[in-house]
Design brief:
130 residues; mainly alpha; 53% helix
């Protein structure tokens, strides 16, 4: 359903002369759809939505510091995979898992354990299925 709406909205942008505010609304809708896809671990698809939103905001004439551009850029950046490398245990660049105690216990959660990073707030280790 989300893919159908994506195709429909992108077709509207290309085929119709819409007012800039309508285009901006479509861009904001694409951000919402992209975040829903992220929750389903569809990182590559969500990046397409955020990129399209950025293209729309750019075509409307928004500056890079416009709140919609900043929001779409932030979401697009969150899709980027970061390379993880081994560092010494005392390194200031090391990552620390927030709920490590749960991982060391024998208790299992049916929904899984979060690999949120206490060392890098707002980031987590996730499985990439693409």
């Amino acid at each position: 359903m989300i893919n159908y709406l994506y195709e429909h909205l992108c077709h509207k942008i290309i085929s119709c002369q819409l007012p800039n505010e309508s285009k901006a609304e479509i861009g904001r809708a694409l951000i919402v759809f992209g975040t829903k896809l992220q929750k389903k671990s569809k990182w590559s698809d969500s990046l397409d939505y955020f990129t399209q939103a950025l293209n729309i905001f750019d075509s409307v004439g928004y500056a890079d510091n416009h709140p919609d551009m900043v929001c779409a850029s932030h979401h697009a950046e969150s899709c980027a995979t970061r390379q993880v490398v081994l560092v010494p245990q005392e390194s200031s660049s090391k990552i620390c898992i927030k709920y490590r105690e749960v991982l060391h216990s024998n208790v299992t959660d049916p929904e899984g354990t979060s690999f949120e990073l206490s060392s890098h707030p707002g980031y987590a280790l996730v499985r990439s299925s693409d």
